[in-house]
Design a protein that fits this description.
Layout (H helix, E strand, L loop, with lengths): L10 H9 L10 H30 L2 H6 L11 H24 L5 H22 L5 H20 L3
């Protein structure tokens, strides 16, 4: 196809208006649309959970954690370790949604989900060692890994 050039219309605008064949633009199948919607919902839910937990770990004091029987795992950790975990959770929560919503660096979404899955797998190991329930952390780990696989290979952004 010969290039049509014009001095008043840049080539890309010209191509988008006159030369692009819109009938050949692929339309996603209903299955892909449903999976994309499901992944967005899962990403949003995980972002809310990890954001809330991350903020809790960042801003709650060590004595408050030590007094809470639901946070036995914090007794063997320093305040800076707890805050680092909170920062990682908060960064992961933002990484699940912000790149895709902004349309930039969308490859960070599966990476953030993978990192959150690994972080929660480590949390599950810690809870198991302390003989605490591991089901919530394993569920978060598996859901994060589902987002990582879904956004990395099945329905990339």
């Amino acid at each position: 196809m010969p290039l049509k050039t014009s001095t008043t219309i840049p080539y890309l605008v010209h191509y988008a208006i006159e030369d692009f064949n819109y009938s050949e633009t692929p339309v996603p199948s209903p299955e892909v649309i449903r999976m994309n919607l499901g992944l967005w919902i899962l990403q949003a839910l995980l972002a809310v959970v990890f954001g809330a937990v991350g903020l809790t770990h960042l801003f709650r004091s060590k004595p408050a954690f030590d007094a809470d029987p639901n946070f036995r795992w914090t007794r063997a950790m320093s305040q800076s370790s707890i805050k680092s975990i909170g920062a990682a959770e908060l960064a992961g929560a933002l990484g699940l949604v912000v790149p895709a919503a902004a349309g930039v660096l969308m490859g960070l979404v599966p990476l953030a989900a993978l990192c959150l899955g690994v972080l929660m797998a480590g949390a599950a190991a810690t809870h198991r060692r302390l003989k605490e329930p591991v089901a919530p952390t394993l569920a978060l780990s598996l859901l994060s890994l589902m987002v990582s696989v879904g956004r990395g290979w099945l329905v990339p952004l």
